[in-house]
Q: What sequence folds into this?
């Protein structure tokens, strides 16, 4: 936890940078904008508004796959805004937590705007687009550069999921790949969002899946919406069933977690089998012996779309509440 002095200096510095091009992007939905008044002014029970903005770099180095999730969250409470930044690295079959920063400040008119942290910095280009995210911490240096826009996938009631060309820069060199951007917003108390999946098979195949509400028992088949890009052509799949083919216990949260997934649409236009090859999971806090958990799986497998088979790798963003 930073001291109030450090938090004040960071907020002042972020505001100063904003005059010259810090991140001022806003959600596509005007309903998320608000009117600048603090939550709870209407006399209703306090509601926590939560804004997540996630960037996933996905690429392949000569020796291994490389996945770098960046996670920015703002939680708007009656007493102000709490922010968290996380970064992880999956490489050579293992995961490393690169960064975890927290800060707090007064209520803001645009709390969804992501701010840099002490070690996680941002480069912002024209139109307030995030051009790069970098970690500058002694002994840990990595940067994700977000390049040319490739496509976006419209999500009802949410911002589109956006896909870009990208690259990851390490002291040892660079890795080319894709960057997926996913923004989500919800309120607490209320139903939180479910899992999402990003799969890639070279430059000709990408598939993004997002779990739809209402969320059921994690071990029951989930209903997902999917968006594919195959040979530069986009397609929408309104209903894809995703079920756990295998599962294992995760003792820190006293829950079962998936180890393999089966994908299937009615009529079999899309089918697939994914296997976990590595994972990074964290148990949360709670009064119940069964705790919430969140994290990532690195997966590989095969997906068949209209009879064409693709070997894929990717990431499953997994949560249980």
A:
């Amino acid at each position: 936890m930073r001291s109030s002095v450090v938090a004040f200096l960071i907020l002042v510095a972020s505001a100063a940078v904003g005059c010259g091009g810090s991140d001022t992007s806003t959600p596509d939905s005007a309903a998320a904008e608000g009117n600048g008044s603090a939550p709870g002014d209407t006399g209703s029970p306090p509601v926590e508004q939560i804004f997540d903005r996630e960037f996933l770099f996905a690429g392949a180095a000569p020796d291994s796959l490389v996945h770098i999730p960046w996670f920015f969250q703002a939680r708007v409470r009656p007493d102000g805004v709490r922010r968290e930044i996380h970064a992880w690295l999956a490489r050579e079959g293992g995961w490393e937590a690169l960064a975890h920063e927290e800060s707090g400040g007064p209520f803001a008119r645009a709390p969804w705007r992501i701010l840099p942290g002490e070690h996680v910095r941002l480069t912002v280009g024209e139109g307030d687009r995030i051009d790069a995210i970098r970690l500058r911490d002694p002994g840990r240096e990595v940067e994700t550069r977000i390049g040319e826009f490739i496509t976006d996938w419209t999500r009802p009631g949410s911002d589109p999921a956006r896909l870009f060309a990208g690259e990851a820069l390490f002291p040892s060199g660079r890795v080319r790949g894709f960057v997926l951007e996913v923004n989500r917003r919800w309120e607490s108390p209320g139903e939180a969002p479910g899992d999402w999946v990003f799969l890639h098979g070279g430059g000709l195949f990408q598939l993004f899946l997002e779990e739809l509400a209402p969320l059921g028992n994690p071990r029951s088949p989930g209903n997902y919406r999917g968006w594919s890009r195959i040979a530069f052509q986009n397609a929408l799949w309104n209903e894809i069933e995703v079920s756990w083919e295998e599962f294992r216990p995760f003792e820190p949260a006293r829950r079962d977690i998936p180890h393999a997934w089966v994908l299937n649409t009615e009529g079999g236009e899309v089918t697939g089998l994914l296997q976990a090859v590595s994972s990074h999971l964290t148990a949360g806090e709670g009064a119940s012996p069964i705790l919430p958990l969140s994290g990532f799986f690195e997966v590989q497998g095969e997906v068949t779309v209209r009879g064409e088979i693709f070997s894929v790798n990717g990431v499953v963003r997994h949560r249980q509440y």
About this structure: Residues 4-18 form the longest helix (15 residues). The first strand starts at residue 48 and ends at 60. The helical segments are 4-18.
